[in-house]
Write a structure and sequence with these properties.
The complex is a heterodimer of chains A (283) and B (179). Helices cover 48% and strands 10% of the residues of chain A. With 283 residues, chain A is α/β, with parallel strands linked by helices. With 179 residues, chain B is mostly helical. Classes of the chains: A alpha/beta (283), B mainly alpha (179).
Chain lengths: 283, 179
């Protein structure tokens, strides 16, 4: 399978282990990635919080480039990028004036002809059977809290993905790796997102509630699909009141462990919270 | 309702022109505020800000810290029984507040967004070191994150040099057209 790839800025910086682990895992699962040439930032929170037009046009540039490369499907592993791309695609169809402005900049193209998918949808396409077939280590007994955050599951009217209150798709994928998904209350609660810089206290508080709930329900690990959620849940644990030391893994890292890829090769050593206890259970 | 002369747009009008939805759609049930993860940190609850706009208290609405503390998590929008997209309303409020240069208490949040977007304008991609540096200079917030910053560098999570897109001219055109 070949698929378009929009890594987004975080995957070469704060979330570089996401990119690293994703590429290793997809290689083993026979998926080839074709990166969008000269892609640019989606504008993230700062664009849509302050300038509606900019926040729509910036992501569309990447769709136009993707179409030029004849891509029909585009993977955006960062939940925030995924959200900005898919919402902008929807907005220009709804608003002909904005579409016209976008076409003036990028030339006319079939903006609907490229389907944007998130990382869970990619694993769904690969299929559970394939993961089980390639599995080297059954992550038996590992209790995992699947954390979706905000931007994978909202707004449902536009993404049409899973369920905005009780999503369950990530649980199915980690079950294929042999792990046990736990029931818990915070899988769609906000981690504080971009407040991490200007209002660190908010990001720490909100993330702490998530960590506490996962821990209370017996999780050995939280599995995420967003570099912003990852940095809040992992890096901000140092500033939390309770010292829980909950490992936070990207979905690609977690699947990578079950495919037999080494922890450091997956970038687990780049996290702030050590995964050593978890890795002992994996052996 | 405010009774402004025809030529003067009320805040509600401006929001409607950006979001294509009327603020009167909200019937003040408060479900948004009940589920808002940031409510405890705000002065007005999210539905109160909508109420201020509905009643024509435009200035008070624009000066509320709430519009800057909204994290854009979309929980409110996805749960609203009236399908009022409150997150979109908050986006529009921030945009109008910046355009009209309303007095804002939440200066750090504004500086964060500005610093972030400046790097995109310059490089086409986010440059973490650059925008955090600019943000700290603006806000004089030098001590924040000294606990994690060194480890970020060691782990190669923050680079000292930006990644630039080749088509910088194209990025500039986007900003020229939209700013």
């Amino acid at each position: 399978m070949k698929i378009g790839y929009y890594p987004g800025c975080s995957l070469s910086g704060t979330g570089r282990e996401y990119d690293l682990s994703l590429k290793k895992v997809l290689n083993l699962l026979d998926v080839e990635l074709e990166e969008i040439s000269d892609w640019s930032c989606c504008g993230a929170t700062s664009a849509h919080a302050t300038n509606h037009l900019l926040s729509t046009i910036l992501p569309v540039r990447n769709l136009a480039l993707g179409k030029k490369q004849n891509l029909t499907e585009l993977l955006a592993p960062c939940a925030a990028c995924y959200n900005r791309l898919i919402v902008s695609q929807y907005e220009i169809e709804k608003n002909p004036q904005v579409k016209k402005q976008a076409f003036e900049l990028f030339g006319e193209f079939d903006s609907k002809g490229i389907s944007i998918i998130n990382i869970i949808e990619l694993f769904q396409k690969i299929g559970k059977d394939k993961i089980i077939e390639k599995r080297e280590i059954e992550l038996k007994g590992i209790k995992a809290a699947c954390y979706y955050g905000c931007l994978l599951v909202r707004p449902f009217e536009i993404t049409g993905f899973d369920d905005s209150e009780q999503p369950h798709s990530m649980e199915e994928i980690i079950s294929a790796a042999g792990a046990v998904p736990i029931d818990w209350n915070y899988k769609i609660e906000c981690c504080g997102a971009s407040h991490s810089i200007a209002h660190k206290e908010i990001a720490v508080d909100l993330s702490e509630k998530i960590i506490n709930d996962a821990s209370k329900h017996g999780a050995d690990v939280i599995v995420v699909a967003c570099p912003m959620c990852h940095s809040n849940l992992d890096m901000r644990q140092k500033a939390m009141k309770k010292n829980i030391k909950m490992p936070v893994l990207y979905l690609s890292e977690f699947i990578g462990l079950s495919l037999g890829i080494g922890a450091n090769e997956l970038g687990l050593n780049l996290h702030f919270i050590s995964s050593d206890l978890l890795l002992e259970k994996v052996k | 309702m405010s009774h402004a002369p025809d030529a003067v747009l009320t805040l509600a009008d401006k929001i409607e022109s950006i979001t294509s939805q009327s603020t009167l759609q909200c019937y003040q049930c408060g479900k948004c505020s009940a589920g808002c993860p940031v409510r405890d940190y705000m002065d007005d609850s999210p539905n109160q800000v909508v109420r201020l706009v509905q009643l024509g208290f435009d200035e008070s609405a624009l000066q509320s810290s709430t519009i800057w503390l909204c994290a854009g998590c979309l929980t409110c929008s996805s749960r609203c029984p009236q399908n009022f997209d409150l997150a979109k309303f908050m986006d529009a409020m921030r945009e109008i507040s910046l355009k009209e240069k309303t007095a804002i208490d939440e200066k750090d949040t504004v500086e964060f967004h500005k610093a972030f977007l400046n790097q995109i304008k310059k490089h086409g991609r986010a440059f973490e070191f650059g925008f955090i540096r600019d943000y700290k200079i603006k806000t004089q917030n030098f001590l924040q994150d000294v606990d994690v910053a060194p480890e970020m560098f060691i782990k190669g999570k923050i680079g000292l040099f930006p990644h630039n897109v080749k088509d910088k001219e194209g990025i500039k055109k986007i900003f020229d057209k939209t700013e």
